[in-house]
Design a protein that fits this description.
This protein has 298 residues and is an alpha/beta fold. Helix content is 30%, strand content 29%. The strands form five sheets. An eight-stranded mixed β-sheet has the order 5-6-7-4-9-14-10-13.
Amino acid sequence: MKNTFPLASLGGFHLKIKTKVAIVIPKPDLAAQTIWKILSSQSYFKESDEKFDNNPIFSFEKFPNDIKVVHSNKDGVESNHLDLDIQAELYIFASRHRAASGTPAFLIHPTGNWSIITLGGREKELSHTSAIVLKEGFRNLQTKQEIYNLSDFKVDLEVTHHGPTKLRTPLVFMELGSSESSWVNEKASLAVGEAIIETAQSFIKGVSFKGESYVGFGGNHYAYRFRKHIIENNTAFVSHIAAKHTLDYLSEEIIMEAFEKTLEETDVALIDKKGAKSPQRTRIIEILENIEKDFILV
């Protein structure tokens, strides 16, 4: 049943858009727009009477109250305004990924700036995220790559980078990369779009969490050793990851924030022993001991 109340002040109260998962489609993002074009053509969603940023909101036919699509007038990295009008438990951003190599890819990652601002958000601030959602989303991207025979697309887990950082709602970015030719690839867009939907459905059904959630330190941008670890260990989940080039600038406060802003209880760090210099490892371990967190070298 459609919401017949206007999304405005009523009796002194601001009526928020309520859902468990909001799939965010940034209007300036070409890949996100292609993903939405393909998903909307598949009749997964139905237009509602609700609006966000003066754009109609669409409800997922199977779970209309729990999964909704919102179109943001701002780019994804700048969409810090979502919480003003949306009450959700998770945001999944459909997004482009850009890389100089242009390698076709499907990717997932949390957002945040470990020190300086890389793109959007505030410096020394991380978003809230979920280790379970990151792993489930990664698996779904792998599955869709296989189903649609898109072997030329790499499936990757990225480290924590860029905005938004101000949102109180946990979020992940699920991305299509890494050049314009990929952003308009309809088959690849369908694969990422369906992976997003299935990740949203897993979240609202409550994916069981039996294992350990970690924060990662070290390695390159594509977090090879951490990706390998969670693939090989069914009970291992990872949330925020700080790449090697950020380790010299990490404060005790931002490291603690990585643990606190993970939805699942997280008390252990993974350290890429080959993806960090000896002084960097020593410093990170000292900080972890100060904040009473355990660590594992991988």
